[in-house]
Amino acid sequence: MSGRSWVTRTAARLALRYAATHPETVSKVIFENPPWDMVLATKTLVLGGLPLLRELGLDDGVDELLAYEGPATAEMWEQRTGILHRLGDRRMEMYLGPASRDLVLPADSLPDEIQSRAGRFATEITKTPGFSESLLPYLERLTQPALLIKGGFDPVTSPEEIALFRSTVAGGVYQYYEGAGHFVHAERPAEYAELVTSFIVD
């Protein structure tokens, strides 16, 4: 995943932790394809890229990466995300729904220097103590209404994370967009805006 994209997903980790530990300051919380558990999220990411890796004959070593069940580490992160770099210019295909393959994201027009900063930020995150922590236990501490948005072709949020959200968060609302990918807000902007507005106002 590009650095800039991972920065936005990291915000979902911060949002969960903050909402759970400071409920008096957060009235509602919205998550879009979040990676709350790095082991699960990176496994889902590799699985998302696997069809394309196989199509291109670039899947050597994938089975070993998927078999890993240890804690989240910088090495695990580098190996699992690194294998997706083999896809080169086709890597973005795994993040978008079929109808959105020609989508140009606003971040794509940012200067290289800005995008480089995002990449460095993503790298630094893996060195922090919080990186290895699964935030799934925080879900049961959410007391405010929470909205989880999931694109059908999103390769980040795992089925396990979704299931736990749906079974644990009392005020949880789960919205699934079958044809969308990782960037639901950009792929289905009108529906996304209506959903988020309705959730916030109600």
UniProtKB/TrEMBL annotation:
| Domain of life of the native organism | Bacteria
Q: Which UniProt keywords apply?
A: Hydrolase
Question: Could you tell me which SUPFAM superfamilies the record lists for this protein?
Answer: alpha/beta-Hydrolases
Q: Which residue stretches, if any, does this entry annotate as coiled coil? A: none
Per the database record, which ranges form the AB hydrolase-1 domain? 13-189
For the keyword Hydrolase, the answer is yes
Please provide, alphabetically and separated by semicolons, the GO molecular function terms listed in this UniProt record. hydrolase activity
State whether keyword Protein biosynthesis applies.
Answer: no
User: Which protein, by its recorded name, is this?
Assistant: Alpha/beta hydrolase
Q: Which organism is it from?
A: Kribbella qitaiheensis
